[in-house]
Amino acid sequence: MKASAAAALVLLQSLPAHGFTLPAAHSTQPAIFTPVRVLGGGHRNHLDASVARHGGSFRVVTQRPYSVTPLRAAAADNDVAPPDTSQAYITSLATLMICVWCWALQTPLVRYCFNTVEHPPPIAVLNAGSAAAALLTVLGAAALQAAQQQRQQQQQRASGLSADAAYDDATAGPSFLRDTEAQRAGLELGTYKFMGVGLNLLGISLTLSSQAAFCIQLTTIMVPLAQAAMGVRLKPQLWAAVAMAFGGVGLLTLDGATNVGGANLHNLLLGDAYCVAAAGFYAAYDVRVNAWSKRARTLPLTLYKTGFQTLYSVAAVAALVASGTPQGQQVLDWAAQVTPDEARLIAGVAIFSGGAANGIATLLQVGAQRQVGPSRAQLIYSTNPLWNSLIATLVLGETIRTVGVAGAGLFLSALAIAAVTPPESEDPAVAAVTAVKADDYAAFGLPDDDFDGYLSDVEDEEGVALAAAARARKE
Asked: What is the annotated signal peptide range for this record (predicted)?
């Protein structure tokens, strides 16, 4: 296999610069395969940067006719490619900002609900309502996607592309009810989401909206910490970012503590602690969803995750009511006392929290982040606490004093560092293999959200050989 990989590299280096054309299977248009020599380094593509610094290489890039894939070669190792100015890129940036605004509005809206209504909902009830709204949103998206796929298949059959339709049917994967990988993924991920959302809502009910947002954003820092616990080496910049982030949250908590006293101070500190715990569950979710997405199809995974999350939430309410405990009696008392106007406001908060912030925004995020890239996307996400604080100031009258401003600045600086610093053990050669496979995958014209499953199904022996060759050149 190593010999075949070496032969493949020699063959690539002998190809003409203008490229060659192959018919793309299951596509009505050919894909143009163009060998491109990498001229410089750069962090936009870790694969190209690594290989270029150690002897140079060729990379095969698939391009659709009438659509040129931009390959920007940086002049120096530390240069970063300029941002894309295409309409699709700008639209994706705007989409991510809409997602951030939905997330930023969620926390002040929940806090407003607890501040305004005379009979605030029990956390378990609000959690169940939010999860149910998210499930209905995902089911609606699944129904729309199924209808779209059915129309495409009908058009294919009408056009005489029976082979393509047969290929789609053959590669559709196991049925929804028999997709055991998605079921196991949903069972685990739904648990993390149920715990995270519940603790988040509980924390918001006790602390300030702005502080809750900063505490939840600790997820950005906890993910690399979880990777370190799993054996991934972290760069010194990431460890510095971790210390800065927790220091910033400490200053924010201190700023909030100076404005309250007695029982309110206890509630504020307890609320912050609940939000930090919620961030831990969100971080576990982010780490595990990365692993599961390589083994389970995206839509079934999302449906089962949301389904289990809703099941847990509804079961928690039922268990409380049946337990006969004071918490269960609180649910019954609230149901008897809540007014119609309060019920409508609480329902609106649950629908926005589950349907918009955790449903629609999450679905929009996937495609937009693919266009923008993870590093720039993380920088956009890190502005969430700023928007949250602005909304909390305008709507709830919350204020952040000098100590809090210093803490917020320290925290946001930590998020920026974490967003642009990859783990040290991230192997550029492995990223190279993945990038080439992504190009190969694009040539088939298959759905983007199935790429992770495609990667897990492809035999990786050649990739291992190529990665070993790249590491040998580096050493």
From this structure: 1-19
Of 388, 405, 420, which marks where a domain is finished? 420
159 part of a folded domain: no
Residues 198 and 263 in one domain: yes
Task: Tell me if residue 426 falls in helix, strand or coil.
Answer: coil
Do the domain assignments include residue 173?
A: no
DSSP state, residue 172: S
Check whether 126 has a pLDDT greater than 70. Answer: yes
DSSP of 71-132: -PPPSSTT--PPPP-SHHHHHHHHHHHHHHHHHHHHHHHHHHHHHH-SSPPPHHHHHHHHHH
Domain assignment present for 160: no
**Tokens describing residue 170:** 């053959």
In whole numbers, what is the pLDDT of the chain averaged over residues?
A: 71
What does each C-alpha distance from 206 to 167, 218, 352, 362 come to in angstroms?
54, 18, 20, 26
Determine the Cα–Cα distance for residues 418 and 283; give it in Å rounded to an integer.
14
Q: What is the rounded average pLDDT of the residues 154-176? A: 58
- Least confident span in 64-78, 97-111, 156-170, 187-201: 64-78
When comparing pLDDT for 81 and 327, which is higher? 327
pLDDT at position 132 is: 94
Choose from 332-341, 370-379, 429-438, 453-462 the range with maximum mean pLDDT: 332-341
Under 8 Å between Cβ of 304 and 190: yes
Residue 229 and residue 294 in one domain: yes
Looking at the structure, tell me whether residues 93 and 77 fall in a common domain. Answer: no
SS3 61: strand
Residue 414: what pLDDT? 80
| Domain, as residue range, for 60 | 2-82+427-474
Tokens of 151: 């129309």
pLDDT digits (tens, 9 = 90+) for 257-288: 666 655 577 888 899 899 999 999 988 888 88
Overall domain count for the chain? 2
Half-sphere exposure of 232 (CA within 13 A, CB side): 18
Burial class (CB in 10 A: 0-12, 13-18, 19+), 90: middle
Q: Which residues contact 62 (CB under 8 A, 6 or more apart)?
A: 31, 32, 33, 69, 439, 440, 442, 443
Confidence of residue 343 (pLDDT cuts 50, 70, 90): very high
Q: Which residue has the tokens 């991510």?
A: 96
Whether 207 and 62 map to the same domain: the answer is no
235, 261: one domain? yes
